[in-house]
Amino acid sequence: MFEKILIANRGEIACRVIESARALGVRTVAVYSDADSASKHVALADEAVYIGGSAPAESYLRGDVLIGVAKETGAQAIHPGYGFLSENPDFVEAVEAAGLVFIGPSASAIKAMGLKDAAKALMHEAGVPVVPGYHGKNQDPEHLAGAADGIGYPVLIKAVAGGGGKGMRLVETPSAFMDALESAKGEAKTAFGNEDVLIEKFVTQPRHIEVQVFGDGEKAVHLFERDCSLQRRHQKVIEEAPAPGMTAEMHAAMGDAAVKAAEAIGYKGAGTVEFIVDGSRGLRADGFWFMEMNTRLQVEHPVTEAITGVDLVEWQLRVASGEGLPKRQDELSITGHAFESRLYAEDVPKGFLPATGTLAHLAFPEGARADSGVRTSDTISPFYDPMIAKIITHGPSRAVALKRMARALAETQVAGTVTNLSFLGALCAHEGFAAGDVDTGLIGRDLDSLVQAPLPSDEERALAALVALGLTGAGWPTGFHLWSAMKRQVRLCFKDEAFDVVVESLNEAAHDVSFGDTRVEARCVGGRWRLNGQLAPDAMLKDGKAYVFAQYGLSFDVIDPLERAASVGAGAALIEAPMPGLVKAVFTRAGEPVKAGDRLAILEAMKMEHSLLAARDGIVAEVLCEAGAQVEAGAALIRLEEEDAEAAA
Predict the structure, then answer these.
(1) Which residue numbers in the chain have pLDDT < 50?
(2) φ, ψ of residue 157 in degrees (nearest 5)
(3) For an engineered disulfide with 217, which of 163, 268, 380, 633 has Cβ 3.0 to 4.6 Å away?
(4) Which is nearest to 55 in space by CA: 630, 635, 636, 634?
(5) What are the percentages of helix, strand and coil residues in the chain, rounded to 5?
(6) In this predicted structure, what is the pLDDT of residue 139?
(7) 375 flagged as catalytic
(8) CB atoms < 10 A from the CB of 502, how many?
(9) What is the sign of the dihedral through the CA atoms of 227, 229, 230 and 234?
(10) What is the rounded CA–CA span in Å between residue 644 and residue 71?
(11) Which residues share a beta bridge with 521?
């Protein structure tokens, strides 16, 4: 076993690797950028070394620097985590050339699976079923359109070097093909430096089921499957293991295919073989096809750990240090069911826009596993993926594991940024998902019902007022003034709704809270606050906001009584950056007329492209940015002329 390893990553996965390494007695070296100098993974590691600027290209993607740090600190091996350099064969070769061990597969294995078209050809030769499609080298648009016609619509255009849904477009009619092709190629070139695509038949009721494999360079075993069908824009949201509706025949067929795939490339370490499955007639052994292989540890590996009792990171370290496979196939079995929910800082009602912010509070409930790379007071940075945590639950059956997940989400507390907690909770309550009737289109079909914004109850509004006035803790005045009840007033704002609240304090354990025609009785009984007899949820005040931890988190702005109302803004006349990012392109200029819905610019943020549209008809007054500019959230990018001015003209 190694004495010391370097972790060439950050955040949640770096913390996860440190945990298993420590259990094996292995010392760890963390690396960090400017943005991560006070991060959790830095605090957990035995050593930490600064490697550069906040942008990944200035730090976590500098392979030569990482290798240099490993050698300087005496690390014998490098664990890449996932993302960044984890699937870069050139980095693997450089690590090995430096006399170090790469904790993962060989460069040749990564290369074999790195391009989707070549990987599919290799899998076909190995006897693994592949989706009908065009995987050839001819990238002429007319040739690709002809291939799509031959495959039959609907088809998927996919970047050959892609992943995470980037460079992927669904095309349902021939007339839409050319525009979709141009868009997919542009996004692929930006994300991967390679604009080549392949064309595949689109399965109309698809399920995404993947198989965890582990190899020693010659032989491999599988650790059963995970269902990752619950996706939004091809990004996984909730994963589970085993897949609902799985039969013994299907288990065997998919497991056998995955092992064939791993052994065909001499795979070493943890990997995942992803399959597209036709769910229209139930799970059948002849209804699944190879999509791709992820030659690294997956984000969702904890659900496999939960049902098998295996620590996959421990296995990675043991096999990389020279041990054989820790278990034979017949020694592996499934116990119970597990779910993983991905908790993100993102604004769901605004189209799942990635968010930033400093975590004023972060707490997870007992009874659930929470893998997180952040803590209270940490900042969600615009430079990296906005994941806050992975929440994992396990139970003896799918129904029990799902109920435990629903409760864990409801009891998770986050303050300081918007999150997708409410969306995840709505998914757990979805009738079809609860019944195991899932496919990759579920979220898209029912999106409106899944993203309903919460409305605070009277009791929750009252609690926010009490917190804002500091009346829920100890050590405040008795509440009496000139022998009469003391009254206090506070103005709160929820979303865009401002309201005034009057609190009449009868004594330190009794308040009457009034707003409009509503009155709520707040009483402290046995050390716990009750509102109209109901037990109050947890709440806190931080940086001018009252947080009530109910309905997955409610945030109220406390309005300073000395502040004047802000002047009316430019509204629909001003197009602002919804998040920090890079202005990729600008499609208009001053004096040009535009129509509502016209695409005015593209903002690239969190590795995705976001189109900025005109909110109304008008004439462009100013273009306040240019392509290539890095902008902050809220930055003014394009201004339209005021409507009165347009009318006068």
Answers:
(1) 474-483, 562-570
(2) -95, 130
(3) 268
(4) 630
(5) 30, 35, 40
(6) 95
(7) no
(8) 14
(9) positive
(10) 67
(11) 512
Distance between CA 245 and CA 287 in Å, rounded? 13
* Per-residue pLDDT, 483: 43
- Write down the pLDDT at residue 608: 67
Residue 219 buriedness (CB in 10 A; 0-12 / 13-18 / 19+): middle
Tokens encoding 636: 């003014």
The reply to whether the predicted model has a pTM over 0.70 is yes
The position carrying tokens 């025609």 is 517
CA dihedral for 377, 16, 212, 297, sign (positive or negative): positive
Separation of alpha carbons 69 and 51, rounded Å: 8
Q: What is the pLDDT of residue 476?
A: 43
Give the chain's count of helices (H) and strands (E).
Answer: 18, 41
Within 115-227, where are the H helices?
Answer: 116-125, 141-151, 177-192
Identity (one letter) of the amino acid at 100? L
Query: What dihedral angle (degrees, nearest 10) is formed by the CA atoms of 249, 250, 256, 257?
Result: 140
**Alpha carbon of 522 to those of 464, 476, 512: distances in Å?**
12, 16, 6
Cα separation of 55 and 335, whole Å? 42
Q: How far apart are CA 406 and CA 107, in angstroms?
A: 41
Q: Longest C-alpha distance within the chain, in Å?
A: 90
Q: Is 217 left (phi over 0), alpha (psi -120 to 50) or beta?
A: left
- Alpha carbon distance 401, 436 (integer Å): 13
Contact 388, 331 (CB under 8 A): no
Q: Which of 169, 296, 369, 639 is catalytic?
A: 296
Q: CA–CA separation, 479 vs 504, rounded Å?
A: 9
Assigned token pair, 281: 């007639």
Q: What is the DSSP letter of 521?
A: E
Q: What are phi and psi of 424, to 5 degrees?
A: -65, -40
Q: Is residue 11 within 8 Å of 41, Cβ to Cβ?
A: yes
Q: Is the dihedral of CA 462, 465, 471, 473 positive or negative?
A: positive
Q: What is the predicted pLDDT for the residue at 475?
A: 41
CA atoms within 13 A on the CB side of 344: 21
C-alpha atoms less than 13 angstroms from C-alpha of 44 in its C-beta half-sphere: 23
Q: CA torsion angle for 328, 331, 335, 339 (degrees, to 10)?
A: -10
DSSP-assigned letters across all residues of 50-90:
EEE-SSGGGTTT-HHHHHHHHHHHT--EEE--SSTTTT-HH
Exposed / middle / buried, residue 266 (Cβ in 10 Å: 0-12, 13-18, 19+): middle
pLDDT for the residue numbered 481: 46
